[in-house]
Amino acid sequence: DRSLKIAPSILSADFANFGAEIQAVEAKGADWIHVDVMDGHFVPNITFGPATCAAIRPHIKTVMDVHLMIAPVDPYIEAFAAAGADFITAHVEAGPHIHRTLQAIRATGAKAGLALNPGTPAEAVAPLLDMVDMVCVMTVNPGFGGQKFIHSCVDKVRTLRSLIGDREIHIEIDGGVDPTTAPLVRAAGADVLVAGSAVFRGGSVSNPAPYGENIRAI
Ligand code: DX5
Ligand code: ZN
């Protein structure tokens, strides 16, 4: 299914109010909820772990899309699966054994995603395409919301689309997605658009109308 899916990243939500923030963006049209897990090691920022994922799970009616920016990954896969992740995405750069990591994700029953940093070529996923349900193209360097979209990544999306061929694999874009960059990656073949700052800006749990306007604008 290559229809457009908007996945607000709760990295840009009110951290003291995740349950209500999730309900608000889902009510305003979010298709998936994107959950950014950072360890202060693979990326220079720390967010939260499996316990927070488990706590927010009952508030998500759509799809829980967990993006692991952690290394190592393997010791934590079971915990994120038990927390209720529908998709678990690991970075191809996170360790020497990404093939094993993808096997371990699928063994839990979760769908497997593979993320690529801006400096990693599309071809890095070629040997793994029969093991993934989604490829996540980072269009910023991971670690923070609100960064500028890196335009050179658009060509990579096009290359990936042709490598994927007719396999059932989502292409997700993560970083700097807004109404000006979204059409570029859609045209290049992406179907899942993560957006943090572009969804949450201007709104709040007590004033959620901007969330709907922002989602529609993407
Ligand atoms: C970045 C995260 C993204 C981030 C996107 O490391 O993986 O999901 O929240 O934020 P925006 O949309 O503000 O670039
Ligand atoms: Zn992310």
UniProtKB/TrEMBL annotation:
Pathway: Carbohydrate degradation. Binds 1 divalent metal cation per subunit. The active site is at residues 36, 174. It comes from the Bacteria. GO terms for cellular component: cytoplasm. Substrate binds at residues 9, 67, 143-146, 174-176, 196-197. SUPFAM superfamilies: Ribulose-phoshate binding barrel (SSF51366). Catalyzes the reversible epimerization of D-ribulose 5-phosphate to D-xylulose 5-phosphate. NCBIfam families: PRK05581.1-4, rpe. Belongs to the ribulose-phosphate 3-epimerase family. This is Ribulose-phosphate 3-epimerase. It comes from Puniceibacterium sediminis.
